[in-house]
């Protein structure tokens, strides 16, 4: 109790209330209120809102982490994906990626990357 009237500070009251709530509720309670909060946020905000907070989060993460961090999370993600999916999954996403690339690029694109690949193989001999 920090002020002259022996009243609790707002910070102290919040901490006590939070601790009491944590003691009285389980994981499902927090999942439910989190879901409700997420749904309410989604109702009130548009795509640009999420793009903006994603951009800010990405910039902050990039400031705080180095190349090795991204390599590590990429490796872990790749391993997890490989555990959960089979050969057909990779064939399907490869096919979709190839179709999308073909749709967005013309013949010249493939000629250019083919030449780059050919030149690279010759220089490695």
UniProtKB/TrEMBL annotation:
UniProt-listed InterPro entries: Stress-induced_KGG_rpt, Stress/Virulence-Domain
Transmembrane region(s): none
Pfam family, one: KGG
Region: Disordered, residue numbers: 1-125
Biased composition (Basic and acidic residues): 7-30, 37-115
PANTHER family from the UniProt entry: CONIDIATION-SPECIFIC PROTEIN 10 (EUROFUNG), PTHR36569
Protein name: Glucose starvation-inducible protein B
Source organism: Metabacillus litoralis
């Amino acid at each position: 109790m920090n002020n002259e009237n022996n009243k609790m500070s707002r910070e102290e009251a919040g901490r006590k209330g939070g601790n009491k709530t944590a003691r009285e509720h389980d994981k499902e309670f927090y999942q439910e209120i989190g879901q409700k909060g997420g749904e309410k946020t989604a109702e009130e905000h548009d795509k640009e809102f999420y793009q903006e907070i994603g951009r800010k989060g990405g910039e902050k993460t990039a400031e705080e982490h180095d190349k090795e961090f991204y390599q590590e999370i990429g490796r872990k993600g790749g391993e997890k994906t490989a555990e959960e999916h089979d050969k057909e999954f990779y064939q399907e996403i490869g096919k979709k990626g190839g179709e999308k690339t073909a749709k967005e690029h013309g013949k010249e694109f493939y000629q250019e990357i083919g030449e780059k690949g050919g030149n690279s193989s010759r220089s490695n001999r």
